[in-house]
Amino acid sequence: MTRLHGETNVAIGRNDPCLCGSGKKHKKCCGKNEAETLLVQQHNQSLQAVLQDFFETHPRPSEQKRLLDWKNKTEDYLVPLYGEDKAGGIIGDVYFFSKHVEIWNDFIDRKLQKESRPQLRLVLESWKNPVFLGGEILSIADYQAEMRDLLSGTAYELDVNESFPVEAGNIALGFYLPDPRKGSRFLMALNSVTAAVDVNPETVQKLKDMHKSSDAQTIQEFYRQNAIAIYQMFSSGLRSVQQTPAEVLAAVQELEQFLIGQDLKSDDLIEAYYHFLEGVTEVPPLSTGGAVYFGIRRGLLKLDWPLEQVAAVFETEETGIAEFAERLADFYDSALAGQEKEASYAFEVGTNPKANELQNWQLFMHLKNAAISSETALKRQMEYYHEKPYEPKSPSEKAQLLAYELFAKDAPEDYQEVQRFDPHLADGFLLAASAETDPTAQKTLLEKAAASSKAHFEQEMEIPWLYIGNRPYLRALFLLGIHYWQQANYEQAFTEFKNLLQLNPGDHQGARYLAAASLIALGRLEEAESLIAHYEDEYSDNAFYSWFKWLIQRKRNVHSKTAQDLFLKAVEQNPYVKKQIDKRPAALPYPKKGVLTPRSPEEAQLIWTFLAPSLL
Q1: What is residue 243's predicted lDDT score, i.e. its pLDDT?
Q2: Per-residue pLDDT, 460
Q3: Could you say which residues of the chain have pLDDT below 50?
Q4: For site-directed labelling of 222, which of 11, 168, 382, 515 has its Cα 20 to 30 A away?
Q5: Which residues contact 338 (CB under 8 A, 6 or more apart)?
Q6: Where are any strands of DSSP class E within 413-462?
């Protein structure tokens, strides 16, 4: 299954909760980008759950014999070309989405009977009879691809991300599901979609000739009748590690292991090195050192080694390293430097307000008392005020604006300026707590912040986080839990995080990770497993939960095969954590702010912060 795209436009009903964070109905308030994105993400999770439910419950016992017969007839054609796993996905998708599509359609009908949300009903209705396409990727911009079907010439749009990493010029074959929320021609790729590279023009022409000579009444009918044959035709251009020489894979792995050992990460360098080696007849023994030196010179690596040091570390001569680095630089400039980069997933962490909270607060303050007569008027107001600074009208508003500015500048020591305007502002207490070094005094300030903001907390909001006025209270509880965590009072820390998750189950702050880590530190392993199972998403958070699962099993039986297997899986999700576990450094405090990417040294440091109490 593919991961659904995360950001899109969604139509909000006039009586739906307003997305601006005010808690009012949309017709009485305004929409805003952050709430819209969060709502879409929740819808995406619901749609992903539909896909997951189908693949987990099918084939049913009554369908297994027919599917097995189909598999026996087709796997000999596909497994040698695509490998067992990919071929299995293709065979299953062709069976359920084409040969016996009535199984899928009946499943969608049952989901529709239970679904009342208009937007999700619209999407589910469009999911019947998934389309098969052989599409050429024309261009990629802003992580979206434009694709043109080879037979109909119809253009479509698709998200490009870690689960669908195509490049311009690829041919993408497989089944797609529409997403009418984003447009009439926006599609999402399913499990069977395969990117073929360097496709011979004769293969494309052969497809077109097959279609012209067929008896099929429609293009979709032709695709469905010939899906297996089409996969065979385009397999020669398949992007597959099976076609990559072993020495190339070994060289790339050597470079990655060097980066891991140095706590460095550079996807650009790995990609350039891999594609360069694909075109050489023999991998020279000095290539990894040359790649590192190229990365240093181009600023792809935060390493200030001179050529002499690189040569010494890789035990090879300087001239060869320098020459290889030059060849790699020429390749990078000519073949890769101008290409659109594939989408990279990143997530925001920290105790400070989110990066866009100030802008959202200002938009809310501009519009909270505005008289808006229509949605058109609302859009005009939002466009006008979107990036327009808000001029505070009261001392309390001045204090809140100043607090946001101090958080952004990381200047909590100036908290008295905030308290001069409003001595009871929750964020003023939080800034003061951040500047305080005495744990007892810090705890008192955090409790004052929680008490001050609790009076303004609107619990009846469907999604409490979306109401801007709720943020200070949720922020205060989060910081109070972290205070107990850093004092090694894991029992009280878990109590605070549990309370926070009950108030805001969507957990937009990351309290679930600290709650799970607290339970593990307390030895309450079954509760930790239950919490992980509740929040785990197979398409994100993999490294955090993989390392948690290993730690739980380690506490039960450090020498068990299960613990060893989970350790290897966790290392694959983020190998940088292994170095932290081997060296056992003091864990860093939970960050005030930051943006992390998966499988990075920075992510590993945060994971170690969660693991350390159970290992030190």
Answers
A1: 53
A2: 85
A3: 1-15, 19-22, 26-27, 30-32, 239-242, 342-343, 539
A4: 168
A5: none
A6: none
Residue 206's Cα: distance from chain center in Å? Answer: 38
Burial 246-285 (b: 16+ CB within 10 A, else e): eebeebbebbbebbbebebbbebbbbbbbebbeeeeebbe
- Asked if 284 contacts 339 with a C-beta cutoff of 8 angstroms, the reply is no
Cα(108)–Cα(103) distance, integer angstroms: 9
Angle between helical axes of 601-615 and 576-583 (0-180°, round to 10): 40
Is the bond leading into 59 cis (omega within 30 degrees of zero)? yes
Cα separations in angstroms, 478 against 330, 360, 407, 498, 500: 50, 21, 16, 10, 7
Please state the pTM of the whole predicted model. 0.64
CA atoms within 13 Å, Cβ hemisphere of 529:
11
CA dist 239 and 246 (Å) reads 15
Quote the tokens at residue 193: 């979609």
Q: Which residue has the tokens 């992903």?
A: 48
- Tell me how far CA of residue 350 lies from CA of 479, 539, 597, in angstroms: 10, 22, 14
Determine the 3-state secondary structure of 280 from DSSP.
Answer: coil
Quote the longest CA-to-CA distance of the chain: 82
The pLDDT of residue 553: 97
**Which pLDDT score, from 0 to 100, does residue 32 have?**
45
Q: Which residues contact residue 240 at a Cβ distance below 8 angstroms, ignoring those fewer than 6 apart?
A: 82, 83, 86
Structural contact between residues 449 and 422, judged by C-beta atoms closer than 8 angstroms: no
Q: Output DSSP code: residue 592.
A: S
Q: What is the DSSP string of 176-214?
A: EEE-TTT-TTEEEE-TT-EEE-S--HHHHHHHHHHHHHS
Question: Rounded to whole angstroms, what are the CA distances from 562 to 519, 552, 557?
Answer: 20, 11, 9
In this prediction, residue 428 carries a pLDDT of 96
